[in-house]
Amino acid sequence: MPRTNHQELVLDEGHDRALTIEAPGKINLALHVVGRREDGYHLLESLTVFTRFGDHLTVENAEADSFVATGPFAKYMPLGDDNLVVTARDRLRAAFPLADCPPVAISLEKNMPIASGLGGGSSDAAATLIALSSIWDLTTTKRELAQLGPALGADVPMCVAAKPLLASGIGERIAMVPSFPELSLVLVNPGVPVPTAKVFGALATYQNPGLPPLPEQPSLDSLVAWLGRTRNDLEATARSIAPEIDDALHELGLTGAQIARMSGSGATCFGLFENDLQAQGAARHIRRERPNWFVVATRTGGAGLNVAD
């Protein structure tokens, strides 16, 4: 089957109906922790973008439900009911009890590291919702699918949107950011998983200032200046749990990144570069210096998941 471009759907209409979709990496360019609810969930404000690099999900009609994973990080993920792909399939089917939702075979090419701050599990779940809503011909919209997201994970609604956005609350409140520039990035992970719950549980403070107003028409230069006024409030705690994050940030700084910061709860860090050529050169250098690390040059952008709003 042909692989899709960024977040596009490819559907074969033969005897065996099949579909392939990308699950993009999620990058928190800035992430401020601004409070905590009585139930313990932390309140966030985040500027979030999505990369052209990610996992690949294939869905096709089958005689019985199945789920398999391939790719460099497949061996680190569960394949049973505790996998978000399986949970998303079952939740979507339950949400449309009167629809014809026949068995499907789902295959995931797992290219993103596990527990890495790239939102891989949430993006896989969002891609599953999108893909199955298409292959099952469900009459639904992105907004309706996003409403299923919080039961799967706080990041799933924004991964359904999969475009530049400002997220608030626990991540469920989303405001799209139009006319956002595409960015050249290098993603670096030193090979240490950092559990999100452990990072939030060790936060010293959760009452921090919110994000400053975003420029109305962000350019690369104005965005870099804006990012210089922002933070990732999880970074210091994550670095205390996984000191290897310091090494990743150091390597990105040595290659000339305009901004080097941790994404999400870590341990993946990103470097923002002026163009693709600089990003690719930086990635080659870091791979030579750190051959056992996960390193990839990529871009943000793309059309967003191919479902009506």
Question: How would you spell out the order of helices and strands?
Answer: EEEEHEHHHEEEHHHHEEHE
The helicity comes to 25-40%
The radius of gyration is 19 Å
**What is the highest CATH level, the class of the largest domain?**
Alpha Beta
Strand content: 25-35%
Number of β-strand runs: 11
* Secondary-structure-derived class: alpha+beta
Overall domain count: 2
**Number of DSSP helices?**
9
Instruction: Characterize the biggest β-sheet.
Output: 7 strands, mixed
CATH topology of the largest domain: Ribosomal Protein S5, domain 2
What's the average pLDDT? 91
- For the termini, the CA-CA separation is 27 Å
Poorly predicted runs of 5 or more residues: 1-8, 303-309
- Examine the secondary-structure arrangement and name the CATH architecture of the largest domain: 2-Layer Sandwich
Summarize the structure.
The protein is an alpha+beta fold and 309 residues long. The chain has helices at residues 84-95, 120-135, 142-148, 156-161, 196-201, 220-227, 235-241, 244-254, 276-289; strands at residues 10-12, 18-36, 42-61, 66-70, 104-109, 165-169, 173-176, 184-189, 259-262, 269-273, 294-299.
